[in-house]
Write a structure and sequence with these properties.
Blueprint: E1 7-16, E2 19-27, H1 32-54, E3 61-74, E4 77-88, E5 95-104, H2 123-137, E6 155-158, E7 161-165, E8 180-184, H3 197-202
Parallel strand pairs: 2-3
Antiparallel strand pairs: 1-2, 3-4, 4-5, 6-7, 7-8
């Protein structure tokens, strides 16, 4: 039986005036326990973003908007991003944080970056080299020298592409937005975890 895309509905949380969070919830998954675990993980990540935005100044929030994008919903792999934009009173501008989650829809496993690759494959150096090349080719302005990614660098999967990204101010000026670095799975074929989600994307 083919692995059909999971069904997704948009839910809404209203925290107050001009404070609205839109988020995805999956349903009609074959395994209700896996469905619950994935939806809980999404809910926790949303709360983490809210906490990050309000921890220091919870009473000064003028506007908050949470949104999401589904990046991959095929081959039993769900990958999505969650964004939270918040503007605080008297701030020079609003701040957005981006988070991403990648799940195996059969087991409910949530993947970290290192779990996408074979043990001992030096994936950090491999990905960093690809990113350095793109920085040069795309003339991306940096606020600090880029050497290598973190072991747990932010990522999402989009079809046959692994996208590594950085937060605002992490390596580029605010006005540049979120620097995204798409890397084809075919460029990483020899280091991909054979049992991980990239291997499923690689298969014809």
């Amino acid at each position: 039986m083919p692995d059909f895309p999971v069904q997704i509905v948009t839910r809404v949380i209203r925290l107050g005036p001009n404070q609205t969070i839109y988020y995805p919830q999956i349903f009609h998954l074959k395994n209700p326990v896996v469905q619950y675990l994935i939806n809980q993980a999404i809910a926790w990540e949303i709360q983490s973003l809210i906490q990050k935005q309000t921890a220091e100044r919870p009473d000064s929030v003028v506007e908050m908007l949470g949104t999401y994008e589904i990046k991959n919903n095929q081959r039993n792999i769900l990958s999505l991003t969650l964004a939270n934009y918040t503007y605080h009173e008297q701030a020079a501008h609003g701040m957005t944080y981006l988070s991403s989650l990648t799940f195996d829809l059969a087991t409910g496993q949530k993947y970290t970056l290192n779990q996408l690759f074979k043990t001992g494959s030096h994936y950090i150096a491999r990905l960093s080299t690809q990113i350095l090349k793109q920085i040069s080719e795309r003339n991306i302005p940096l606020i600090t020298d880029f050497v290598k990614i973190r072991p747990d660098q932010d990522f999402y999967i989009a079809d046959k592409t692994l996208v590594i990204y950085f937060q605002l101010y992490e390596i580029t000026p605010y006005v540049y937005g979120f620097p995204m670095f798409p890397i084809s799975v075919y460029e990483l074929e020899d280091v991909i975890n054979d049992n991980g989600p990239l291997a499923k994307m690689l298969a014809n």
